Amino acid sequence: MKYAFPQDFWWGSASSAPQSEGESLSFGKSATIWDEWFRLQPERFNQQVGPQQTSDFYRCWRDDIALLKRLNHNSFRTSISWARLIPQGRGEVNPQAVAFYNQVIDEMLAQGITPFINLFHFDMPLAMQQQGGWESRAVVQAYAEFADVCFRLFGDRVKHWFTFNEPIVPVEGGYLYDFHYPNVVDFSRAATVAYHTMLAHALAVRNYRARGQDGEIGIILNLTPSYPRSANPADVQAANIADLMFNRSFLDPALRGSYPQELVALLRQHDQLPPCQAEDAALLAQGVVDLLGINYYQPRRIQCRDSLVNPDSPFMPEWFFSHYAMPGRKMNPYRGWEIYEKGIYDILTNLRENYGNPRCFISENGMGVEDERRFEQNGQIQDDYRIDFIREHLQWVHRGISEGSRCLGYHMWTFIDNWSWSNAYKNRYGFVQLDLASQQRTIKKSGEWFAATAAANGFEE
Ligand code: BG6
Protein backbone atom coordinates (compact mmCIF):
# COMPACT_ATOMS: atom_id res chain seq x y z
CA MET A 1 0.00 0.00 0.00
CA LYS A 2 1.38 3.40 -0.96
CA TYR A 3 0.38 5.21 2.23
CA ALA A 4 0.60 2.57 4.94
CA PHE A 5 0.71 3.95 8.48
CA PRO A 6 2.59 2.48 11.43
CA GLN A 7 1.06 -0.36 13.35
CA ASP A 8 -1.29 0.80 16.12
CA PHE A 9 -1.72 4.22 14.52
CA TRP A 10 -4.56 6.07 16.26
CA TRP A 11 -7.48 6.58 13.89
CA GLY A 12 -10.30 8.57 15.29
CA SER A 13 -11.96 11.90 15.77
CA ALA A 14 -12.44 14.50 18.45
CA SER A 15 -15.24 16.39 20.09
CA SER A 16 -15.81 18.02 23.45
CA ALA A 17 -18.29 17.91 26.29
CA PRO A 18 -19.76 21.41 25.80
CA GLN A 19 -20.15 20.87 22.07
CA SER A 20 -21.84 17.48 22.16
CA GLU A 21 -23.41 16.61 25.51
CA GLY A 22 -26.32 19.02 25.72
CA GLU A 23 -28.22 19.10 29.03
CA SER A 24 -26.07 22.08 29.77
CA LEU A 25 -28.13 23.16 32.78
CA SER A 26 -29.53 19.85 33.99
CA PHE A 27 -28.52 16.60 35.70
CA GLY A 28 -26.63 18.62 38.25
CA LYS A 29 -24.53 20.58 35.78
CA SER A 30 -24.06 24.25 36.49
CA ALA A 31 -23.57 27.05 33.98
CA THR A 32 -20.35 27.72 32.14
CA ILE A 33 -19.35 31.01 30.59
CA TRP A 34 -21.11 29.81 27.44
CA ASP A 35 -24.49 29.42 29.14
CA GLU A 36 -24.00 32.82 30.66
CA TRP A 37 -22.94 34.57 27.47
CA PHE A 38 -25.87 33.01 25.61
CA ARG A 39 -28.23 34.20 28.35
CA LEU A 40 -26.83 37.73 28.12
CA GLN A 41 -26.33 38.07 24.38
CA PRO A 42 -28.09 35.35 22.35
CA GLU A 43 -27.77 37.54 19.27
CA ARG A 44 -24.02 36.93 19.27
CA PHE A 45 -24.70 33.25 18.44
CA ASN A 46 -25.37 32.11 14.88
CA GLN A 47 -29.16 31.83 14.45
CA GLN A 48 -29.37 32.26 18.23
CA VAL A 49 -28.51 28.61 18.78
CA GLY A 50 -26.92 28.17 22.19
CA PRO A 51 -25.15 25.46 24.18
CA GLN A 52 -28.34 23.54 24.93
CA GLN A 53 -28.72 22.48 21.31
CA THR A 54 -26.21 19.75 20.65
CA SER A 55 -26.16 16.19 19.37
CA ASP A 56 -27.28 15.09 22.85
CA PHE A 57 -24.38 12.84 23.70
CA TYR A 58 -25.58 12.92 27.30
CA ARG A 59 -28.52 10.80 26.22
CA CYS A 60 -27.26 9.17 23.01
CA TRP A 61 -23.83 8.09 24.20
CA ARG A 62 -24.41 4.37 23.77
CA ASP A 63 -25.63 4.67 20.16
CA ASP A 64 -22.96 7.21 19.36
CA ILE A 65 -20.21 4.94 20.61
CA ALA A 66 -21.66 2.20 18.40
CA LEU A 67 -21.39 4.68 15.53
CA LEU A 68 -17.74 5.35 16.40
CA LYS A 69 -17.17 1.63 16.18
CA ARG A 70 -19.00 1.53 12.85
CA LEU A 71 -16.52 4.19 11.62
CA ASN A 72 -13.63 1.95 12.72
CA HIS A 73 -12.31 4.36 15.28
CA ASN A 74 -9.74 2.82 17.57
CA SER A 75 -9.62 6.01 19.67
CA PHE A 76 -11.80 9.04 20.34
CA ARG A 77 -11.34 12.29 22.22
CA THR A 78 -13.92 14.09 24.21
CA SER A 79 -13.70 16.14 27.38
CA ILE A 80 -15.01 16.05 30.92
CA SER A 81 -17.11 19.06 31.78
CA TRP A 82 -15.75 20.72 34.92
CA ALA A 83 -19.13 22.38 35.56
CA ARG A 84 -20.88 19.01 35.32
CA LEU A 85 -18.45 17.13 37.53
CA ILE A 86 -17.94 19.81 40.19
CA PRO A 87 -20.86 22.22 39.77
CA GLN A 88 -19.48 24.93 42.02
CA GLY A 89 -16.03 24.60 40.49
CA ARG A 90 -14.62 23.46 43.82
CA GLY A 91 -15.82 21.02 46.40
CA GLU A 92 -18.76 18.71 45.98
CA VAL A 93 -18.69 16.18 43.14
CA ASN A 94 -21.91 15.55 41.17
CA PRO A 95 -22.71 11.81 41.37
CA GLN A 96 -24.78 11.95 38.16
CA ALA A 97 -21.74 13.20 36.30
CA VAL A 98 -19.56 10.46 37.75
CA ALA A 99 -22.07 7.83 36.65
CA PHE A 100 -22.31 9.38 33.17
CA TYR A 101 -18.57 9.55 32.53
CA ASN A 102 -18.05 6.07 33.97
CA GLN A 103 -20.60 4.67 31.53
CA VAL A 104 -19.05 6.48 28.58
CA ILE A 105 -15.52 5.36 29.41
CA ASP A 106 -16.56 1.78 30.10
CA GLU A 107 -18.57 1.54 26.90
CA MET A 108 -15.74 2.94 24.80
CA LEU A 109 -13.34 0.42 26.27
CA ALA A 110 -15.86 -2.39 25.77
CA GLN A 111 -16.03 -1.42 22.08
CA GLY A 112 -12.25 -1.33 21.71
CA ILE A 113 -12.09 2.47 21.46
CA THR A 114 -9.34 4.07 23.51
CA PRO A 115 -10.64 7.12 25.38
CA PHE A 116 -8.55 10.28 25.05
CA ILE A 117 -9.84 12.62 27.72
CA ASN A 118 -9.33 16.35 27.77
CA LEU A 119 -10.01 18.42 30.87
CA PHE A 120 -10.78 21.87 29.56
CA HIS A 121 -12.28 22.84 26.23
CA PHE A 122 -13.03 26.56 26.57
CA ASP A 123 -15.71 25.79 29.20
CA MET A 124 -14.89 27.74 32.34
CA PRO A 125 -17.55 27.15 35.02
CA LEU A 126 -19.39 30.39 35.62
CA ALA A 127 -18.75 30.08 39.37
CA MET A 128 -15.01 30.15 38.63
CA GLN A 129 -15.29 32.99 36.13
CA GLN A 130 -17.06 34.99 38.80
CA GLN A 131 -13.95 34.51 40.92
CA GLY A 132 -11.75 35.92 38.17
CA GLY A 133 -11.41 32.99 35.78
CA TRP A 134 -7.85 32.43 34.59
CA GLU A 135 -6.85 35.85 35.86
CA SER A 136 -7.00 34.41 39.37
CA ARG A 137 -4.39 32.12 40.88
CA ALA A 138 -7.09 30.65 43.12
CA VAL A 139 -8.82 29.36 39.97
CA VAL A 140 -5.54 27.78 38.89
CA GLN A 141 -5.60 25.82 42.14
CA ALA A 142 -9.28 24.93 41.67
CA TYR A 143 -8.56 23.58 38.19
CA ALA A 144 -5.76 21.40 39.58
CA GLU A 145 -8.19 20.00 42.14
CA PHE A 146 -10.74 19.26 39.40
CA ALA A 147 -8.03 17.53 37.33
CA ASP A 148 -7.07 15.48 40.35
CA VAL A 149 -10.66 14.38 40.92
CA CYS A 150 -10.74 13.20 37.29
CA PHE A 151 -7.49 11.25 37.69
CA ARG A 152 -8.76 9.67 40.89
CA LEU A 153 -12.18 8.70 39.51
CA PHE A 154 -11.29 7.68 35.97
CA GLY A 155 -7.52 7.26 35.83
CA ASP A 156 -7.70 3.51 36.35
CA ARG A 157 -9.16 3.26 32.82
CA VAL A 158 -8.20 6.49 31.05
CA LYS A 159 -4.53 6.39 30.04
CA HIS A 160 -4.35 9.38 27.69
CA TRP A 161 -5.08 12.69 29.40
CA PHE A 162 -4.91 16.23 28.10
CA THR A 163 -4.95 19.27 30.31
CA PHE A 164 -6.24 21.78 27.74
CA ASN A 165 -7.50 22.03 24.21
CA GLU A 166 -6.16 25.07 22.35
CA PRO A 167 -5.42 27.09 25.49
CA ILE A 168 -4.63 30.16 23.40
CA VAL A 169 -8.21 30.37 22.12
CA PRO A 170 -9.83 31.56 25.37
CA VAL A 171 -6.97 34.06 25.63
CA GLU A 172 -7.55 35.41 22.15
CA GLY A 173 -11.31 35.09 22.25
CA GLY A 174 -11.96 36.23 25.80
CA TYR A 175 -9.24 38.86 26.30
CA LEU A 176 -7.99 40.11 22.92
CA TYR A 177 -10.39 39.82 20.01
CA ASP A 178 -13.86 39.62 21.57
CA PHE A 179 -15.18 36.28 20.38
CA HIS A 180 -15.50 34.55 23.78
CA TYR A 181 -16.92 35.68 27.10
CA PRO A 182 -15.91 37.80 29.06
CA ASN A 183 -15.27 39.92 25.93
CA VAL A 184 -12.35 41.85 27.32
CA VAL A 185 -9.81 43.51 24.99
CA ASP A 186 -6.66 44.02 27.02
CA PHE A 187 -3.26 42.54 26.27
CA SER A 188 -1.86 42.51 29.78
CA ARG A 189 -4.93 40.69 31.11
CA ALA A 190 -4.62 38.28 28.19
CA ALA A 191 -0.99 37.63 29.09
CA THR A 192 -1.98 36.85 32.68
CA VAL A 193 -4.69 34.47 31.50
CA ALA A 194 -2.21 32.71 29.22
CA TYR A 195 0.38 32.44 31.96
CA HIS A 196 -2.03 31.13 34.57
CA THR A 197 -3.36 28.57 32.12
CA MET A 198 0.13 27.14 31.75
CA LEU A 199 0.62 27.15 35.52
CA ALA A 200 -2.63 25.20 35.82
CA HIS A 201 -1.39 22.83 33.13
CA ALA A 202 1.91 22.26 34.93
CA LEU A 203 0.18 21.66 38.27
CA ALA A 204 -2.10 19.06 36.72
CA VAL A 205 0.85 17.33 35.02
CA ARG A 206 2.81 17.28 38.25
CA ASN A 207 -0.13 15.90 40.21
CA TYR A 208 -0.89 13.28 37.59
CA ARG A 209 2.67 11.99 37.69
CA ALA A 210 2.62 11.92 41.48
CA ARG A 211 -0.28 9.46 41.29
CA GLY A 212 1.79 6.94 39.31
CA GLN A 213 -1.21 5.83 37.29
CA ASP A 214 0.70 4.32 34.40
CA GLY A 215 -0.69 6.56 31.69
CA GLU A 216 0.37 9.67 29.85
CA ILE A 217 -0.55 13.31 29.98
CA GLY A 218 -0.30 15.97 27.34
CA ILE A 219 -1.77 19.14 25.97
CA ILE A 220 -3.50 19.94 22.69
CA LEU A 221 -2.24 23.03 20.86
CA ASN A 222 -3.52 24.67 17.72
CA LEU A 223 -0.34 25.36 15.82
CA THR A 224 -0.34 27.87 12.98
CA PRO A 225 2.96 27.89 11.07
CA SER A 226 3.82 31.52 10.35
CA TYR A 227 5.18 32.03 6.86
CA PRO A 228 6.81 35.39 6.02
CA ARG A 229 5.73 37.10 2.85
CA SER A 230 9.33 37.40 1.64
CA ALA A 231 12.91 36.81 2.70
CA ASN A 232 13.10 40.49 3.54
CA PRO A 233 14.39 40.66 7.15
CA ALA A 234 11.44 42.83 8.21
CA ASP A 235 8.95 40.19 7.00
CA VAL A 236 10.99 37.40 8.57
CA GLN A 237 11.12 39.24 11.88
CA ALA A 238 7.35 39.90 11.73
CA ALA A 239 6.66 36.18 11.15
CA ASN A 240 9.01 35.31 13.99
CA ILE A 241 7.08 37.53 16.40
CA ALA A 242 3.75 36.06 15.29
CA ASP A 243 5.23 32.61 15.90
CA LEU A 244 6.42 33.64 19.37
CA MET A 245 3.05 35.08 20.31
CA PHE A 246 0.71 32.48 18.84
CA ASN A 247 2.70 29.23 18.85
CA ARG A 248 5.74 29.32 21.07
CA SER A 249 3.91 31.04 23.95
CA PHE A 250 2.37 27.62 24.63
CA LEU A 251 4.59 25.22 22.71
CA ASP A 252 7.81 26.11 24.53
CA PRO A 253 6.46 25.71 28.06
CA ALA A 254 4.72 22.47 27.01
CA LEU A 255 7.82 20.94 25.42
CA ARG A 256 10.74 22.72 27.06
CA GLY A 257 9.24 23.73 30.39
CA SER A 258 10.00 27.42 29.96
CA TYR A 259 9.11 30.46 27.86
CA PRO A 260 11.23 31.64 24.92
CA GLN A 261 13.64 34.31 26.11
CA GLU A 262 12.82 36.45 23.07
CA LEU A 263 9.15 36.53 24.04
CA VAL A 264 9.93 37.38 27.65
CA ALA A 265 12.26 40.19 26.53
CA LEU A 266 9.65 41.60 24.15
CA LEU A 267 6.91 41.64 26.77
CA ARG A 268 9.24 43.07 29.38
CA GLN A 269 10.25 45.85 27.00
CA HIS A 270 6.58 46.80 26.62
CA ASP A 271 5.76 46.30 30.28
CA GLN A 272 3.35 43.45 29.54
CA LEU A 273 4.82 40.61 31.58
CA PRO A 274 2.25 38.87 33.78
CA PRO A 275 2.82 38.79 37.54
CA CYS A 276 5.11 35.87 38.41
CA GLN A 277 6.02 34.23 41.69
CA ALA A 278 9.41 32.85 42.62
CA GLU A 279 8.34 29.20 42.52
CA ASP A 280 6.66 29.42 39.08
CA ALA A 281 9.72 28.57 36.98
CA ALA A 282 10.26 25.29 38.81
CA LEU A 283 6.58 24.40 38.43
CA LEU A 284 6.52 25.23 34.71
CA ALA A 285 9.57 23.01 34.24
CA GLN A 286 7.49 20.10 35.53
CA GLY A 287 4.83 20.66 32.90
CA VAL A 288 6.73 19.10 30.00
CA VAL A 289 4.28 16.74 28.36
CA ASP A 290 4.45 13.06 27.47
CA LEU A 291 2.36 13.58 24.36
CA LEU A 292 1.53 16.63 22.24
CA GLY A 293 -1.77 16.93 20.40
CA ILE A 294 -1.54 19.07 17.28
CA ASN A 295 -4.61 20.82 15.94
CA TYR A 296 -3.95 22.11 12.46
CA TYR A 297 -6.39 23.98 10.30
CA GLN A 298 -4.56 26.75 8.50
CA PRO A 299 -1.25 28.62 8.39
CA ARG A 300 -0.57 32.28 9.13
CA ARG A 301 0.67 34.46 6.28
CA ILE A 302 2.65 37.32 7.74
CA GLN A 303 4.25 40.48 6.51
CA CYS A 304 5.78 43.43 8.29
CA ARG A 305 3.46 46.30 9.09
CA ASP A 306 3.14 48.84 6.34
CA SER A 307 2.49 51.71 8.72
CA LEU A 308 4.05 52.84 11.96
CA VAL A 309 2.31 51.90 15.19
CA ASN A 310 0.65 54.71 17.02
CA PRO A 311 2.36 54.36 20.42
CA ASP A 312 -0.80 55.67 22.10
CA SER A 313 -2.89 52.78 20.75
CA PRO A 314 -3.42 49.83 23.11
CA PHE A 315 -0.66 47.24 22.93
CA MET A 316 -1.66 44.33 20.66
CA PRO A 317 0.18 41.54 18.82
CA GLU A 318 -0.60 43.39 15.60
CA TRP A 319 1.82 46.11 16.62
CA PHE A 320 4.48 43.84 15.12
CA PHE A 321 3.02 42.33 11.94
CA SER A 322 0.15 42.22 9.49
CA HIS A 323 -1.63 39.28 7.95
CA TYR A 324 -1.92 39.12 4.20
CA ALA A 325 -3.74 36.92 1.71
CA MET A 326 -1.10 35.05 -0.24
CA PRO A 327 -1.81 35.37 -3.97
CA GLY A 328 -2.82 32.03 -5.46
CA ARG A 329 -3.45 30.39 -2.13
CA LYS A 330 -5.92 27.52 -2.00
CA MET A 331 -9.05 28.30 -0.03
CA ASN A 332 -11.79 26.29 1.55
CA PRO A 333 -14.59 27.91 -0.46
CA TYR A 334 -17.16 26.90 2.14
CA ARG A 335 -15.53 28.39 5.25
CA GLY A 336 -13.07 31.04 4.13
CA TRP A 337 -9.94 29.46 5.58
CA GLU A 338 -6.79 28.76 3.62
CA ILE A 339 -5.99 25.12 2.95
CA TYR A 340 -2.27 24.44 3.03
CA GLU A 341 -1.69 20.74 3.50
CA LYS A 342 2.09 20.97 3.73
CA GLY A 343 1.72 23.03 6.92
CA ILE A 344 1.05 19.82 8.83
CA TYR A 345 4.39 18.42 7.65
CA ASP A 346 6.18 21.66 8.48
CA ILE A 347 4.86 21.41 12.04
CA LEU A 348 6.11 17.83 12.37
CA THR A 349 9.48 18.82 10.91
CA ASN A 350 9.81 21.77 13.27
CA LEU A 351 9.04 19.53 16.24
CA ARG A 352 11.59 16.98 15.08
CA GLU A 353 14.34 19.45 14.35
CA ASN A 354 13.86 21.98 17.14
CA TYR A 355 11.99 20.26 19.97
CA GLY A 356 13.65 16.86 20.29
CA ASN A 357 11.07 14.98 18.21
CA PRO A 358 8.35 14.59 20.86
CA ARG A 359 5.66 11.91 20.78
CA CYS A 360 2.72 13.61 19.12
CA PHE A 361 -0.40 13.04 17.08
CA ILE A 362 -2.75 15.08 14.96
CA SER A 363 -5.53 15.77 17.40
CA GLU A 364 -7.67 17.93 15.08
CA ASN A 365 -7.71 18.67 11.40
CA GLY A 366 -10.86 19.35 9.53
CA MET A 367 -12.89 21.18 6.99
CA GLY A 368 -15.87 23.28 8.00
CA VAL A 369 -18.58 23.70 5.39
CA GLU A 370 -21.56 26.04 5.38
CA ASP A 371 -24.92 24.82 4.06
CA GLU A 372 -23.60 21.33 3.62
CA ARG A 373 -27.00 19.94 2.75
CA ARG A 374 -26.52 21.29 -0.76
CA PHE A 375 -24.14 18.35 -1.29
CA GLU A 376 -26.73 15.74 -0.34
CA GLN A 377 -27.57 13.08 -2.91
CA ASN A 378 -29.82 10.11 -2.26
CA GLY A 379 -29.87 10.96 1.41
CA GLN A 380 -26.10 11.16 1.93
CA ILE A 381 -23.76 14.15 1.90
CA GLN A 382 -21.22 13.59 -0.85
CA ASP A 383 -18.33 15.41 0.75
CA ASP A 384 -15.58 14.49 -1.67
CA TYR A 385 -13.94 17.84 -0.82
CA ARG A 386 -13.48 16.57 2.76
CA ILE A 387 -12.06 13.24 1.59
CA ASP A 388 -9.53 15.13 -0.56
CA PHE A 389 -8.72 17.39 2.38
CA ILE A 390 -8.05 14.47 4.72
CA ARG A 391 -6.16 12.42 2.17
CA GLU A 392 -3.87 15.28 1.20
CA HIS A 393 -3.09 16.09 4.83
CA LEU A 394 -2.48 12.44 5.60
CA GLN A 395 -0.03 12.20 2.70
CA TRP A 396 2.06 14.91 4.34
CA VAL A 397 1.74 13.26 7.74
CA HIS A 398 2.93 10.03 6.15
CA ARG A 399 5.95 11.80 4.74
CA GLY A 400 6.75 13.33 8.14
CA ILE A 401 6.60 9.88 9.73
CA SER A 402 8.80 8.38 7.03
CA GLU A 403 11.39 11.06 7.84
CA GLY A 404 11.32 10.13 11.50
CA SER A 405 8.56 12.16 13.15
CA ARG A 406 6.95 10.38 16.08
CA CYS A 407 3.39 11.09 14.98
CA LEU A 408 1.22 8.39 16.46
CA GLY A 409 -2.21 9.10 15.09
CA TYR A 410 -4.73 11.23 13.27
CA HIS A 411 -7.99 12.46 14.75
CA MET A 412 -10.42 14.44 12.65
CA TRP A 413 -12.53 17.29 13.83
CA THR A 414 -15.20 15.99 14.23
CA PHE A 415 -17.35 12.91 14.69
CA ILE A 416 -20.97 14.14 14.47
CA ASP A 417 -21.60 17.74 13.33
CA ASN A 418 -21.42 19.65 16.58
CA TRP A 419 -22.29 22.96 18.16
CA SER A 420 -19.38 25.29 17.68
CA TRP A 421 -19.45 28.19 20.13
CA SER A 422 -20.85 31.38 18.71
CA ASN A 423 -20.75 29.87 15.20
CA ALA A 424 -23.19 27.21 16.46
CA TYR A 425 -23.97 25.01 13.41
CA LYS A 426 -22.77 27.43 10.74
CA ASN A 427 -19.76 25.31 9.79
CA ARG A 428 -20.31 21.58 9.67
CA TYR A 429 -17.26 19.41 10.23
CA GLY A 430 -18.57 15.93 11.04
CA PHE A 431 -18.12 12.50 9.53
CA VAL A 432 -21.77 12.18 10.45
CA GLN A 433 -24.47 14.63 9.48
CA LEU A 434 -26.76 15.79 12.27
CA ASP A 435 -30.33 16.83 11.70
CA LEU A 436 -30.74 19.08 14.69
CA ALA A 437 -34.54 18.93 14.79
CA SER A 438 -34.91 15.15 14.55
CA GLN A 439 -31.50 14.28 16.00
CA GLN A 440 -31.10 11.87 13.10
CA ARG A 441 -27.53 10.90 12.29
CA THR A 442 -26.43 10.02 8.74
CA ILE A 443 -22.91 8.98 7.85
CA LYS A 444 -21.38 11.20 5.17
CA LYS A 445 -19.32 9.83 2.32
CA SER A 446 -16.18 10.97 4.18
CA GLY A 447 -17.21 8.85 7.17
CA GLU A 448 -17.32 5.78 4.94
CA TRP A 449 -13.96 6.69 3.43
CA PHE A 450 -12.40 7.17 6.83
CA ALA A 451 -13.80 3.87 8.11
CA ALA A 452 -12.22 2.05 5.16
CA THR A 453 -8.92 3.91 5.60
CA ALA A 454 -8.77 3.12 9.31
CA ALA A 455 -9.57 -0.55 8.65
CA ALA A 456 -6.79 -0.75 6.05
CA ASN A 457 -4.43 1.39 8.17
CA GLY A 458 -3.77 3.53 5.12
CA PHE A 459 -4.73 4.09 1.51
CA GLU A 460 -3.41 3.62 -1.96
CA GLU A 461 -3.55 7.08 -3.57
C1 BG6 B 1 -11.30 24.07 16.79
C2 BG6 B 1 -11.88 23.89 18.19
O1 BG6 B 1 -10.29 24.99 16.82
O2 BG6 B 1 -12.18 24.58 15.82
C3 BG6 B 1 -13.30 23.39 18.14
O3 BG6 B 1 -11.09 23.02 18.99
C4 BG6 B 1 -14.13 24.14 17.11
O4 BG6 B 1 -13.86 23.47 19.44
C5 BG6 B 1 -13.47 24.00 15.74
O5 BG6 B 1 -15.44 23.68 17.07
C6 BG6 B 1 -14.25 24.64 14.57
O6 BG6 B 1 -14.50 25.99 14.73
P1 BG6 B 1 -15.48 26.86 13.82
O7 BG6 B 1 -15.29 28.25 14.28
O8 BG6 B 1 -15.09 26.70 12.37
O9 BG6 B 1 -16.86 26.38 14.02
From TrEMBL:
InterPro entries assigned to the protein according to its UniProt record, in alphabetical order: GH (IPR017853), Glyco_hydro_1 (IPR001360), Glyco_hydro_1_AS (IPR018120)
Residue positions of the active site: E364
Signal peptide: none
GO molecular function, one term: hydrolase activity
Domain of life: Bacteria
Keywords: Hydrolase
The name this protein goes by in its record: Glycoside hydrolase family 1 protein
Species: Serratia rhizosphaerae
Phylogenetic placement of the source organism: Bacteria, Pseudomonadati, Pseudomonadota, Gammaproteobacteria, Enterobacterales
